Amino acid sequence: MAVGPGTLPEFFPVKGVRLGIASAGIKKPGRKDVVVFELAPGSRVAGLFTTNQFCAAPVTLSRKHLTEKAPRYLLINTGNANAGTGERGMKDALACCEALAQHAGVSAAEVLPFSTGVIGEPLQVQKIVSALPEALVSAGDNRWAEAASGIMTTDTRPKGESVRIDLGGHTVTISGISKGAGMIRPNMATMLGFIATDACIAPEALQALASELGEASFNRITIDGDTSTNDACMLIASGQYGGPEITLDSPHLPALRDALKDVYLHLAHAIVRDGEGATKFVTIQVSGAAARQEALDVAYTVAHSPLVKTALFASDPNWGRILAAVGRAGVADLDVSLLEIHLGDVCLVRDGGRAEDYSEARGQAVMDQEEITIAIDLKRGDVCETVWTCDFSHDYVTINADYRS
User: Fold this and answer.
1) Active-site annotation holder among 78, 85, 173, 190
2) Which residues contact 265 (CB under 8 A, 6 or more apart)?
3) Is 230 labelled a binding residue?
4) N or C: less crowded end of the chain, CB within 10 Å?
5) Interior angle at CA 382, CA 380 and CA 385, nearest 5
6) 3-class SS of residue 79
7) 276 is in an annotated binding site
8) Does the annotation place 153 within a ligand binding site?
C-alpha cells in the first residue's frame, strides 16, 4: 500500500555525477542491492546523520572520512545495516571502502559508506566486494531511476525527484533519491537520501543548505516514531554547471535554496506516502505556538498517537483522540478554551469543546480522503510548524512482524 501515484520523474543527468548499480545478493539472490556514486574531482559533499547513540558503523566512518578528504565515491548497500556490530562492523565498513578505493584508484578516505537493512547481523563484505566491479563498469550519468530502486528495503516503490532551473544564465540541475518506509522519525534527515546538483557551492553554504533543508523536510516526517541507527542525507555539489561559486551572500543563493527545498520536500513526502502499510498522507499544522519546540511537541504527539493513527486508517472521525493528544503534549499553561482544531476545512474543537457547527457527516467526508490536514491553532503566539505522517494499518504490523523472514 502507498498513497498517491508514486511515479518517478524524468531524471536529468547531473554533470560530474555518475551512478552504478550491481547485485550482491545480500538478502535476496539477484536483487540489485549495491549502488555506487562516482563524483568528479572537486565535488563537495555535506550531510546530516542520525542522532541515535547506536549509530551504525558506516555512519561513524562516513563522518570520519568527511573530515579527512573530499569524497569521490559513495557506496550504498541494502539488506544489512551493519549496525550493532561493534568493532567488527567498523572493520567491515572500512574493508568495503578500501576495496572500492583500490578499484577506483583513490584513497579509502575518499569513499563514504552507507548501509541499510537488518540491524545486528555482520556485514557480508565479500558479497559487496565481489559486486563492486559490476557497479563501477555499469556507471552512467543517468541511472538515477535504477539507483532509486537499488537502495530500497521495505519500500514498495522507488522515490526520486529531478528539476532544472536557470541561475544567472546557467542551467542548474538537481536530482535526488531517497529510501525509507519504516523506523522513521529522523532526528536529522531521513533513512537514506542523496541529492546532487551541478552547481558550484562554497563549503560553508553547502553545509548550511544541507542542515536547513534537512531540518525543514526530512526532519519533519514520522512514520512510527522510531529513529533509525543508519539515517543519512547527503547533499552533493559537483561544481560542473559553468557558473561562479555560490556563497552565503550570493544573489543566486535564494533561488537555488528554493529549488533544493522543493526536491527535499518531495523526497521526504515520498517516504511518508510509502510508509509501511500507509493508506493516508497526513499533514499536521500547528500554529499560534509560543515557541518552536512547543509547536513540534504538539505536532509529534498527535502524529505518534496510535489511537489517532488507527482512527485515520479506519477513516473514523473520532476527533476526541486528537483533542486528547493535544492536551497531553506537555504545553505549559495551555488555555484549552482558546485553541481550535480543524480537520480539513471542518472545525472540530472551539471554546474548549466540540465546535457548534461540527457534524459527524462533515468530519466523515474529510476522513474518507487519502490526504488529510489536521490544523491546530494554540492561539499563544506566532510560531508555526508542520509535520507529515501517515496512518497505522494492519499491514504495518504484518510487515514488521515478518521483516527478517
Assistant:
1) 190
2) 216, 217
3) no
4) C
5) 100
6) strand
7) yes
8) yes
Specify the DSSP class assigned to residue 226: P
pLDDT digits (tens, 9 = 90+) for 354-389: 999 999 999 999 999 999 999 999 999 999 999 999
For the chain, give the number of residues. Answer: 405
The percent helix, strand, coil of the chain (3-state, each to 5) is 35, 25, 40
Helix, strand, or coil (residue 398): helix
pLDDT in tens, 230-278: 788 999 999 999 999 999 999 999 999 999 999 999 999 999 999 888 9
Distance, CA of 318 to CA of 329 (rounded, Å): 18
Q: Has 190 been annotated as catalytic? A: yes
What secondary structure letter does DSSP report for 245? Answer: P
Name the residue with cell 490544523.
375
Q: Which CATH number fits domain 281-401: 3.30.70.260, 3.10.20.340, 3.10.450.30, 3.40.50.1970?
A: 3.10.20.340
Strands (E) across 263-310 are located at: 281-289
Class for the domain spanning 17-273: alpha beta
Supply the pTM of this predicted model. Answer: 0.94
Is 178 marked as a binding-site residue?
A: no
Query: CB under 8 Å, gap of 24 or more: what pairs does 203-208 form?
Result: 203/44, 203/46, 204/247, 204/248, 205/246, 205/247, 205/248, 205/250, 205/253, 206/44, 206/45, 206/46, 206/235, 206/237, 207/46, 208/248
Cell output for 70: 573530499
What would the grid cell of residue 234 be? 547527503
Q: Is 179 annotated as a binding residue?
A: yes
